[in-house]
User: Fold this.
Amino acid sequence: MEQQHQAGNLGMWVFLVTEIMFFGGLFACYAVYRALHLQAFETGSRLLDVRFGAANTAVLIASSLTMALAIHSAQTGKRKSVVMFYLVLTMILGAAFLAIKFTFEWRHDFVEHLVPGFGFEVRPEWGAVGQQVPMFFCFYFFMTGLHALHMIIGIGILTVLMIMASRGRFNEQYYAPLEVTGLYWHFVDIVWIFLFPLLYLIGGHYTMGGGH
Amino acid sequence: MSGHVVPVRVYMGVFLALLALTGLTTWVSYFDLGPMNTVVALAIAVTKMLLVILFFMHVKYSSGLTRLVIVAGFFWFAILATLTLSDELTRNWSPSPAPWSFLLPLIRGLL
Assistant:
């Protein structure tokens, strides 16, 4: 059993390493283009709302906690309703993240004509770098979109776990699906932990025209 | 029984630390620290990542083989990032060779 447990976790980590490379390539790409077009990227970053980004970070961290507690309650042999409670809480928090992302942030960007390819409008106040601001938004929508896709897949897997938990499949001996899904969920959380400062914060919203 | 059971108070502690670090990185971003903006933001993000990996993902209690795979993964990403950035960020360090046009007066003189 011990070896099975370790093999399962190891296999999931091998998959997560491929995910590190997947997102890592995007982060490296972002770093290069940000260095090349620093002013345009800072201008784009200032157009994002830090409050939504910070709130979503908190929501996602909370969902990681409830995921960890779901595994913990299976490990310690709690009733299946306890496991299901934490799984539902995790799904609700995940859905709340997506709701904030789509309905507040993306819809706002669309209304403000900040979506490249969908009526993007270069504003005069952006100055000479205005033409390069859409590049920031391409990165923004692709990276947050890919992250959101991972969240949607994660919520799908959690739904399957819910059904398994309701049938009493998990106990102190067997909770591997919960643990492996937990690894995935926490990984998606880590991706956001990096996306939040890189997209929202380091652009510098301290003063207009500030920066370095 | 397999796997390490982490006490709930450890999870709560990590959760509160992650929330505090989120608040800190947001607060710090309102100050212009120059080039340190990115350094501070990434340092806090890496700290948060380590907290999640070690405690939420149980790597603190996992086998050496799993840790090796994780470290190898991040090492591979470090190679990717280092080689990409060492190319892109150093392109303007050495003066690029002057265009061939500087030879034109010389050639005209010869003609």
Notes: Chain A touches chain B through 60 residues (CB under 8 Å). Chain A has six helices and no strands. Residues 43 and 188 of chain A are 27 Å apart (CA to CA). Residues 2-36 of chain A form the longest helix (35 residues).
